Amino acid sequence: MKELKSLFQEKTQHVQKDLKDILKNHGDLQVDTVVLRQVIGGMRGIKSMFSETSLLDPIDGIKFRGYSIPELRDSLPKSSRGDEPLPEGLFWLMLTGEVPSQSQVEGLADDWEKRSQVPEHTYRMIDSLPLDTHPMTQFSMAIASMQTESVFAKKYAEGISKMKYWDPMYEDVMNLIARLPHIAAYIYRRVYHDNKQIKADESLDWAANFAHMLGNNDEEFQDLMRLYLTIHADHEGGNASAHTTHLVGSTLSDAYYSLSAGMNALAGPLHGLANQEVIKFIFAMLDEIGTKTPTDEQVSKFIHKTLDEGRVIPGYGHAVLRQPDPRFTAQKKFSEKHLKEDDLIQVVWQLFRLVPDILDGLGKVKNPWPNVDAHSGAILVHYGIKEYTFYTVLFGVSRALGVLSNLCWARALGLPLERPKSVNLEWIKNYITEN
Ligand code: FCX
């Protein structure tokens, strides 16, 4: 899509100039101090990365180019058949900093539709895997298998100037995003529906077409997918999937290698896999208690038992947030509108009432509140997507929008190879003695 590409290029030129001036005039300005607890403790909170697409505030939650989730729901273009924002609009916003018009998002959806042909060998590769291969493994491998198509890798091999890296990266990113719903739906239908595949409906927007290929044409479900694919897209640069994609991309690996790596980070239970773990946890609890409508006392007992076994309560806590996650709240609002009477949704809300106090009581959990993963599974179950090992793939399709728009920015700005310094125990002990 020429309009988006040239707008992106124009925007990057302004930021490039700003960054150049900042580096020249303020490059030595200190922005943070680092203590040993952060060196050993997962680098929490250290300001050490540059990422334009979104910023996470511990209290207010995620803001995409300054827009909170409720503001996105108000401001981004919508489908004529739904109330939720179109993820195409969020991608446009992340890439350019501007809210697109209705015709611009429609143009982008058309462009993605044209680019959506998945190479045959990718399907063959997926088909060669055992059916019980985790869907995230299939998804990550499918993405890597399309690396044969990388325009960036081809142009790099031909000796493209570093000033032009952004152009083939943009092409790879657009092609990849266009294909992801097709790959994800293929894996879903292969694993859980006897490989009965559903042809794309070219008249639908990106999210609705994904819903259609999964096998559900309910307009409410299509709208849920628009919301779901919007709110999971980005969570600033330091979260594991975004950081991994950025790190791998910083070696000038192309978008396929970078996204595949990012998806492997998302597949961890402390990150994206938490959405599958939450529903597993809820089903295990209802199974053990033997009812769909447990009492508060029964639920509290199960939570305490889980903690006593040395396990975490999935869907609760966060490395940055210190309030209920606005992405949780957005899903709660959607459920209040559409799914109020659903027993499983009631259990999610019951956990929201009970878990924070219990976690707070442990005296060590910095954020006892629910994150995005606490709500999503119960909604998906309602619309028939009960196969929870697929849930992280859904997260991944959305997360690609954020991490890949970031990758375009990284190449356009010429961001360098990422290479922090590590220290060993001897270094730490010497440092303590010297200080
Ligand atoms: N249940 C039980 N214990 C928890 C907890 C939870 N939900 N959250 C944090 N804790 C514990 C930690 O395990 C740690 O214990 P330790 O000192 O014995 O090792 C202690 O509280 C301090 O951790 P804290 O600083 O609050 O949290 P971290 O930044 O280290 O970790 C995550 C953040 C998200 C990893 C943590 O809260 C967790 O494990 N939550 C459950 C898994 C989850 O929901 N992940 C999804 C997060 C997110 F939304 C996403 O990326 O998708």
Automatic annotation (TrEMBL):
GO terms for biological process: carbohydrate metabolic process; citrate metabolic process; tricarboxylic acid cycle. This is citrate synthase (unknown stereospecificity). Gene3D superfamilies: Citrate Synthase, domain 1 (1.10.580.10), Cytochrome P450-Terp, domain 2 (1.10.230.10). Belongs to the citrate synthase family. Pfam families: Citrate_synt (PF00285). Pathway: Carbohydrate metabolism; tricarboxylic acid cycle; isocitrate from oxaloacetate: step 1/2. The keyword Amino-acid biosynthesis does not apply. One of its GO terms (molecular function) is citrate synthase activity. PANTHER family: CITRATE SYNTHASE, CITRATE SYNTHASE, MITOCHONDRIAL. InterPro entries: Citrate_synth-like_lrg_a-sub, Citrate_synth-like_sm_a-sub, Citrate_synthase, Citrate_synthase_AS, Citrate_synthase_euk, Citrate_synthase_sf.
